[in-house]
Amino acid sequence: MRFQTRLALAFGVVSALPVLALGFGLRREMLARFDHQADERIGGLVRVLRQRLDDDLGVARARVGALARALEGDNRFRLAAAGGDRRWLLDWAGDALPATGLVVLQLHDDTGRILSSGQFRNDFDRVAPTMPAAVGAKDGVALVRARRPDGSVLALAAVDSLTVAGRRYRLIGGVAIDSARLAALASDSEIAVALRFGDGDAASAEADIALPFGDDAAGTVTQARLVVVRDPGPAMELARRLDRWILAAVAGTGLAALALALWLARRVSQPIAELAAKTERLDLERLDQGFATDRPDELGALSRLLDQMTRRLRVGAQQLREAERRATVGDLARQVNHDIKNGLTPIRHVLRHLVDTAERDPDRLAPVLLERRATLDASVDYLDQLARTYARLAPSRGPARVDPVVVLREVAAARQTDRVAIEVQAEGQVPAVAADPIELRRIVENLVANAADALDGRPGTIRLGAAVRDTGRAVILTVADDGRGMTAAELERAFDDFFSTKPGGTGLGLSVVRRLLSDIGGSVRVETGPGRGATFFLEIPAA
Q: Which of 33, 116, 234, 253 could form a disulfide with 107 if both were Cys (CB 3.0 to 4.6 A apart)?
């Protein structure tokens, strides 16, 4: 998995989790607040319903109690109860019902037989204990369904009793209870009020008011409940809207996090890719990659570490090449010495023979020379062939257009260390020179190496310069140091082969410089003195 992908996934997860937690927390709190407000409205509605029932019950009780007191003192009722005017008794409830505002009015004797029924006159003499049983079940109050000629009527009934001639009678009366009127009390469209009878499912009810229920038509006494039901639709709609907003927030945050992650990954991966590309191009033959940077972060620290490592590799590679060169030159010198000795030994023997002949018998010198001429010719031919063979070992390169300032900067980048600073300065527009780039670099590297050695391990600065002469036909390169300098005697032999003032030095550096400069038509001049450092002036023809 790529770094950018991993970073994008990490950013997405890290950014989405807090948004999800915040979103679902807000969702839970808003739904809880919504439910709490609904519960408060339901509680208020239940209180209103109870108050309305209490008011209706108070009306029913007051009216039933007034009728009971009036009936208890009515002589006609006493007469009818004693077996007198029965028709009056049958019509009494029907005549009294309109004036009371009740919808149910029944008079029962102590056996439960209906003596007079206001809502259904023909119910007289029917034994109907349902309503008395229901009304007497709880505080003398109940919800009853009474028969009428055109069906039935639902009423909130109260009971009162009276005693006449030693017999106890029950008077049951009720005011109409209209579920539509009760439902109108719930002004909130989310909340509804309904009447439920029997043992119906109460799971969906938020609150209920239980009442005994007497169904006179069915002859049963059960339970009735005035329930408050809450519509779940608004809460579900609110939850859906919140879910959509949460998903939108998570998606927006995820996209923003993805864009930020890609941007950051690009910012991070690009310098890493550049470092990788530079590192990939590094090898022992190509250590000219620079990693210097002014970034203050970890990537900057890594770049500086790679730059230091590359510098150490440059120094090590240069030292390795120098050691290899010295070893090669030494092997080659031994081989040349051996081959030359092989060619000179016969010549030496012939010369000794000729000298001896000249000393002992000068007259025979000419014949002896002629006799040994073949040996001399063979030895000279051997040495000539040996010279041509070694000449072929030197690589033949054609001159090219080389920017000397670029060469100076490459050498400065390769040879600069923590203790030795190398400065490069170019005066004006410096033209290209006609030289082999490798040989020109060897010239400058040899001079820079000698300048660094002249510092004797002290911190110092080496100054490289490039300028053009007024004629524009030559370029002047300078290599200056502030080292120990050279005496007049040392300067006189500085360009001799195998002359060195350094312990373990080969003495070939400056001689190689002079030879290479001669190959490209250049020259070298030195200004130095003990304790004043040294400045080398290289004059090279312009291309």
A: 116
